[in-house]
Design goal:
Length: 123
């Protein structure tokens, strides 16, 4: 998933990792011949781990939290037959910022973009 590392002036490292995510979205588009351009938007939910390590490799704090956010994107779907379609889309996920539990205030950036391609079979 999405991973970030920051190094600050105190030589501390901060790791941030989105372990998993899920979305609930609506999709709207218009059909033109065998193409369906669309937009999508909704809610996102994810499990995020943040960890800071200090100079000398000592571990500061670990924080695992489930966070909410938004999801928005766009794509296009193409029908090849009555049953087979293919699609490609890009989806932006913007999740809540997390604050570290260490003696300093550090905030994690939990935003990322996913690009997907797929084949669909309609029964």
């Amino acid at each position: 998933m999405a991973n970030n590392t920051w190094i600050c002036e105190e030589q501390a490292r901060f790791y941030n990792s989105v372990e998993w995510y899920a979305t609930v979205r609506g999709r709207a588009g218009f059909a033109y011949k065998s193409y369906l351009p669309f937009i999508t938007a909704g809610l996102a939910y994810a499990g995020v781990t943040s960890r800071d390590t200090h100079e000398g490799g000592t571990t500061g704090t670990d924080l695992y939290k489930n966070v909410f956010g938004v999801a928005a994107g766009a794509g296009i779907e193409k029908a090849f037959s009555e049953h087979l379609t293919a699609q490609i889309d890009a989806l932006y996920i913007g999740l809540q910022t997390m604050k570290s539990k260490s003696d300093k205030d550090y905030y994690s950036d939990n935003n990322f973009t996913v690009v997907r391609a797929g084949l669909n079979w309609k029964f």
